[in-house]
Amino acid sequence: MKLKAIFTAVLLGAAPAMAQDAPPLPAGLSSESAQESSTKKEPSPEAPALPAGLGDDTAPALPSGLGEQTGPALPPGLSGDEATSASRAPADTEEEPFVVPFGLTGFVEARLGARIVEDPTQKTLSIGEVRAQLGRDIETRHATFRIVGDLFYDQVEDVSDVNLETGRGFFDLREANVLVRPLDFLDIKAGRQILTWGVGDLVFINDLFPKDFRSFFIGRDDEYLKAPSDAIRISAFNNIANVEFVYTPRFDADRFITGDRISYYNPALGRIAGRDAIVMPQARDDWFSEDEFAARAYRNIAGFEAALYGYAGYWKTPEGQTLSGQPFHPRLAVIGGSLRGPVRGGILTAEAGHYFSRDDLSGDDPFIRNSETRFLVGYEREIASELTASVQYVGEVLSDYAALANSLPPGAPSPDRMRHVVTLRLTKLMLNQNLTLSGFNFWSPNEKDGYFRFRASYKLNDSWLTEAGGNIFYGADENTFFGQLENNSNLFVGVRRNF
After folding, report:
1. Beta pairing partners, 245
2. Maximum Cα–Cα distance across the chain
3. 29 neighbors 12 (Cβ within 8 angstroms)
4. How confident is residue 130, by pLDDT bands cut at 50, 70 and 90?
């Protein structure tokens, strides 16, 4: 069974419906961005900054709330970073600052949500957790050390055993790394870190760093769309181009849909499955032999930031199936590029990448995902006072469609040769920018399905933030990319105290 990079395309982040029997993950959910409040990634403290589109300190911007990117300055009103609304104008209410011992920073929060569609394979409660994130930076003359971890209680899964790869248990280590600068033009960061690059808004094409689609779909903060990587990142800066190289000594898969919390379409069963059919893929956890390489070179050209990307590793979701029926992660290589810059008062983005399915280069194996080309074109601008709109068109084209179609088992449905997705984001700031209203919709005209996520967050003061929102999936068929998730539609509320 193959779970489409359900979330190697949504975002489109996950990927389109499976080229074979299982519907793919949302396009781009497997390639880049992260918090809803901002579609930009955090500028790298070590390098020039980059778009919307999920950051890592040196990568392009993530989806709203996930950071801000490096690149040409945004036109007035196009800050796009919803997350920044929590740090703009303080509310009228003032309170004594809460000082945490040992210089720790972070937050405590509680979130509660429930499904609005009956799902016999899952619990009605979609999220019910209390979480505390604690972090500490230690700077010395020669290095900067950073550690960030989450302690939480999850009432839905209620798992006590800690698994740092899947994020389950009562503890999740988000960051534990050291940054050194041996030369003025060279940075080296080693350890657990959050990585991201690319220009898509909740669409990941050349971003092959791990994502957490389970968190994204149940209403956790958008920063949790990005899962941590255990890697070494080397950044070199010069006047010709800035170059980044990332080596992951052991493969880091996405925290993808397995059925234990989010239901999905199971082609082997021919129906929606959940906790009654947990996906258990073959592990790729051999150090230094099952590893990953990623590289990026970028520079400004006439006001635009241009970038080239490369990746060698594995599909981030299990896009292959053995003869015995067990899912696995086939080998994958990707090359691509992106462009981002100001055009007529807004920001234009473009990105493309070709996916080489290295275990099925001929494209005639119906049990391994086909090679494909993905691309996007987007535009963002302020259309009214404190109202920003952005739109994207995303395409995914199978490379060896004829070979795949001829090799499908009798009676097996043939996938579309090309998947189309259109996204629209609207963000409105109100009440001195203390209230942020946002909506983001994915719609696939050929698969007739989509995903609408909306948020309303209000900053009570510099410390307290409340939020409410929902994740609504819809589709004409249950075996399409978003249609398979319809039973997971949910509403949630949350409150956070920052310190």
Report:
1. 234, 295
2. 69
3. yes
4. very high
Q: Which two tokens stand for residue 7?
A: 């979330």
Our measurement of the distance from residue 442's CA atom to the centroid of its chain's CA atoms, rounded to an integer in Å, reads: 14
3-class DSSP assignment, residue 486 = helix
Q: 242-290 pLDDT, tens per residue?
A: 999 999 999 999 999 999 999 999 998 999 999 999 999 999 999 999 9
CA angle 492, 253, 44 (to 5 degrees): 80
Q: Which amino acid is at 301?
A: I
172, 36, 201, 244: CA torsion to nearest 10 = -40
pLDDT in tens, 195-221: 999 999 999 999 999 999 999 999 999
- State in Å, rounded, how far the first CA of the chain is from the last one: 45
Q: Is the dihedral of CA 85, 91, 432, 466 positive or negative?
A: positive
User: Cα(416)–Cα(309) distance, rounded to whole angstroms?
Assistant: 27
Non-local (6+) Cβ contacts of 239 within 8 A are none
Q: Residue 205 is encoded by which pair of tokens?
A: 């094409």
**350 DSSP β-pair partners:** 339, 377
Give the residue from 74, 31, 29 showing the smallest Cα distance to 51.
Answer: 74
Give 410-449 as a 3 state SS string. Answer: CCCCCCCCEEEEEEEEEEEEECCCCEEEEEEEEEECCCCE
The CA radius of gyration of the chain, in Å to the nearest whole number, is 21
Residue-wise pLDDT for 48-100, tens only, equals 444 444 344 444 444 433 444 444 444 444 444 444 444 444 444 555 666 77
Q: Domains in the chain, start-ordered, CATH in brackets?
A: 6-498 (2.40.160.10)
> Any idea which residue has 């003359």 for tokens?
141
Structure tokens, 341:
């810059």
Give the Cβ contact number of residue 198 at 10 Å.
37
Contact 26, 14 (CB under 8 A): yes
Specify the amino acid at residue 344: R
Please name the residue that has the structure tokens 């909740």.
202
Per-residue pLDDT tens digits for 324-374: 889 999 999 999 999 999 999 999 999 999 999 999 999 999 999 999 999
Overall residue count recorded for the chain in this entry: 499
Cα 114 → chain centroid: 22
